[in-house]
Amino acid sequence: MRQWSVAAAQCCSPQSNLPETVAHHVRFIRHAGLNDVDVLMFPDNSLPLSEILNSGQEAQTLWLASLQDAAARYGVITILSSGNEGGVAITPENGVQNLSCATLVCLAEDVFCQVEGTPVINISGGKVALGINGQPGEEIWPRGAVDEGADIYLTASAVNELQWNWVSSALQRWALKYQLPILMANNTSATSPGKSACWDDRGQLLIRAEKEEVLVICRRNAEKWQGEILPLVN
Length: 234
What we know:
By secondary structure, the protein is an alpha/beta fold. It has a single domain, classed as Nitrilase/N-carbamoyl-D-aminoacid amidohydrolase (4-Layer Sandwich). It is built from five helices and 14 strands. It has helices at residues 18-34, 49-53, 57-74, 140-147, 161-178; strands spanning 4-10, 39-44, 77-81, 87-91, 95-99, 112-115, 118-123, 126-131, 152-156, 182-185, 197-199, 205-208, 214-221, 224-231. The strands form two sheets. A seven-stranded mixed beta sheet has the order 5-4-3-2-1-13-14, covered by helices on one side. Strands 6-7-8-9-10-11-12 form a seven-stranded mixed beta sheet, with helices on one face. Strand 8, helix 4 (140-147) and strand 9 (152-156) form a beta-alpha-beta unit. The protein starts with a strand and ends with a strand. 47% of the residues are buried. Mean pLDDT is 85; it is low at 102-116. Pfam families: CN_hydrolase (PF00795). One of its GO terms (molecular function) is hydrolase activity. Keywords: Hydrolase. Residues 4-234 form the CN hydrolase domain.
């Protein structure tokens, strides 16, 4: 069975400086690609995505081009979440694809489909469900992922320490209930604890980061998941 990998980018994004923020995302994409990651999930609102997408085609091209180039160069499907407004997937083959958790649509060349409002990526060897809805602890999204036969559920969050305790308990519960591995990407900042984590299909904590900027990687091979944490390398 082909080994494939997904990762959470636990990052601290300097959103007051958009060029620097985009460049920081490119560093994560590069690091993921060099470590054989297939799908990379950023925390919720790691980029001011709604501002970029509403700024006109020329500005979108300016800010997203380097992300598209990085995704293509390093072969990483990159997921950016904008809370209740949905998000985008940047694929090596098809560029930027809009994602929504409210509608059922089919996206480019059967790479994406949406089930019960939960976007699902089909990659060689498995299915990856995406939580890009600003509600990381809600049950409807992992339940929809299971209905489609997803192998793992990735969810983007941006929660503080108190919220993390509630969200992590909920995700552990859904992992056990649905026998579904769950990987959460959380940001790290003065108000956010980091602690991006993965629970296996028994609800057991597989791996958890602390507060540093890291990749939290889950690799699947021969029906077994393994966790790995890699610090960001500039």
